[in-house]
Amino acid sequence: MLYREAGQFKSTYAADQAIFPLRQDRIGLFAILGLAFIAVPLLADDFILDAIAIPFLILALATIGLNILTGYAGQLSLGTGGFMGAGAYACYKLTTSFPEANIILLILLSGVFSAAIGIVFGLPSLRIKGLYLAVTTLAAQFFLEWCFIRIGWLYNYNVSGAIDSPERNTIGGLVLTGPNASSVTRYIVVLAIVALITLLAKNLVRGRIGRSWMMIRDMDIAAELMGVRPLIAKLSAFAVSSYICGVAGAMFVFFYLGSVEPAAFSITLSFQILFMVIVGGLGSLIGCYFGAAFIWILPIFLRNGLPMIGIDIGAENVVHLTSMIVGVLIILFLIWEPHGLARLWQIGKEKLRVWPFPYA
Amino acid sequence: MSLLYDILVAPFVQMADAPDFLAQVLWEGFVSGILYALIALGFVLIFKASGVFNFAQGIMVVFAALTLVGLYQKGVPALLALVLTIAVMGLLALAVERFIMRPLVNQPHVILLMATIGLTYFLVGLGELVFGGEPKQMITTELGLPTGSTEIPFGERGVVILQHIDIAAAVIAILMVAGLGLFFNRTRIGRALRAVADDHQAALSVGISLNQIWAIVWFAAGIVALATGIMWGARSDVSFALEIIALRALPVLILGGFTSVPGAIVGGLIVGIGEKLGEIYWGPLLGGGIESWLAYMIALVFLLFRPQGLFGERIIERV
């Protein structure tokens, strides 16, 4: 009854091409944004912000990055962790070399470095396809991980081998990063960056470049015959994907963890992001948020939620149980709903349109 | 100039100076190459028969070894534990066929790859939940495998130390490959396997049951995994750290081609020996630890020139 497009006529091309053509969707979007920007910082405590909201947003951004490469351009990558690390280390080097520069600008800039690395490791994709390519992206993962451990210049030769986020302020004196930054500030900054990049990504994937990515994904030979240049399409997918992953990686260090060892960007992280993409839905941006929320919150729920309802499984077993459940879920999703949670969301919206009738 | 000297000349001078050390390095590389080849063999078996890139092969190695040791620690005699482990791998094969392969038949390769990554996570969780995550000692002597070492004089003054377990590993690997070769060429099931590998539909039309073949091939891969697990476990402890070794076996597949058994063996030896030589003679230049990516880089460069691997079938694309 409420969710129906009847009576909403488009009189301009701009209105017809809008991201959210339905008025109800626009209202819903602004409600969610309002909730995220105003209600959450007011109501949530530090635990929720630090342990759930901030990492969820950052991982959702990394998921968007991988989804562009895997879901839209069809190039399976297992090197996401490495590209995130590249962004993080680039940002660390930048901010220690230019302490005066605005940290947000540097974070956005650090993605450029990981994009360059992404292009280099994307070059084989011009010759290699499918499974072979997936294995070669592991080369990026292991090589970058090795760089983070062995090249002292990257972490300024400090003894621990870890990088930590130094304290940086904006012009107004607001502490953005470092141990003294408040959770609310970091949350707002992360949210703003994630929302902005999501908007850009949405416009990319529905525009000319995004369509050429999808053509390459669906059938590269046909795409080539129809005038899509594979070189440009594949490398731009690698570049955009690693840019977004790099920004996510930089935020992962500067706004979430504060201090990381190279092991944080290991292949486990790559797989975690890949799972978020699969569970959320390949080739869907809203799915990235669903997937990230699901995979990130599941272990937290198992750890904190189950004891609350009277089931105690022991702290050390939570990790194993999570791993098992995630494994089974991945297989189930691939069998039952290969388009992931995003598809369920879409089905729900379709049902809502014809409600209260069973068929339209 | 001195850098060029370090890269191009110094390592070879080093090799010529100590031929016994070089022989030792080559032997070590040969043994780990054989073990890589065994892991790759498990991959190839499954890929040939079902087109599944089985990412979980590495974890099956750990899982098999862990089950064996775990059962032994729970008081089961060693040989009975071995039989039980084989039974567990059989059950696993049946379950994989029933719950993963059958519902996902005819899906794109990439979907099947992701399903096996899911299987990997499931097996990691299951293994740690049942047997615990701490490293375990492989029951080498209880299984009747030799321990100890022999020193062979080499050159004028040097010796090469051969661990007996390494020799056993090499012998078992060779026997296994020979056995698989016989199985593929001489038995009824083996021929059915090859028929399935060639063409699923043609195999179906002459009355070969795909489901049965898949279960058998996963079981065979499980047995290979168990043998690999015992050998790796005897060289180091049995723990989930072995998983990383399975990831190292992936470049072997690229080098050898996904569908070639000889390719897996040759690729394994190239990677094993190349890795050891690179690590010992060129590694210090780069600060060490290059083992983790050297094989990948070799494979990546190699792929640029020959996308189907050394022995792989030529990739023909139809539109």
Summarize, please.
By secondary structure, chain A is mainly alpha-helical.
Q: How far from one another are the termini of chain A? A: 12 Å
Shape of chain A: globular
- DSSP helix count of chain A? 14
> What fraction of residues of chain B sit in β-strands?
under 5%
Estimated helix fraction of chain B: over 70%
Secondary-structure element series of chain A: HHHHHHEEEHHHHEHHHH
Q: Which sequence of SSEs, written as H and E, runs from N to C of chain B? A: HHHHHHEEHHHHHHHH
- Low-confidence runs of chain A: none
Number of strands of chain B: 2
Give a description of the structure.
The complex is a heterodimer of chains A (360) and B (319). Chain A contains 14 helices and four strands. With 360 residues, chain A is mainly alpha-helical. Chain A has a domain at 33-266. In chain A, the strands form two sheets. In chain A, strands 1-4 form a two-stranded antiparallel sheet. Chain A has a two-stranded antiparallel sheet with strand order 2-3. In chain A, a hairpin with a 5-residue loop joins strand 2 (168-169) and strand 3 (175-177). In chain A, helix 7 (183-205) packs antiparallel against helix 10, helix 8 (208-218) crosses helix 10 (230-257) and helix 12 (285-308) packs antiparallel against helix 13. Chain A is globular. Chain B has 319 residues and is mainly alpha-helical. A two-stranded antiparallel ribbon of chain B has the order 1-2. Chain B has helices spanning 2-8, 10-17, 19-50, 57-73, 78-101, 109-131, 164-186, 188-198, 200-205, 210-235, 242-248, 250-256, 261-286, 291-305, and strands at 149-154, 158-163. Chain B is globular. Chain B has 14 helices and two strands, in the order H-H-H-H-H-H-E-E-H-H-H-H-H-H-H-H. Chain B has one domain (2-240). In chain B, 73% of the residues lie in helices and 4% in strands. The interface between A and B is large, with 45 and 47 residues.
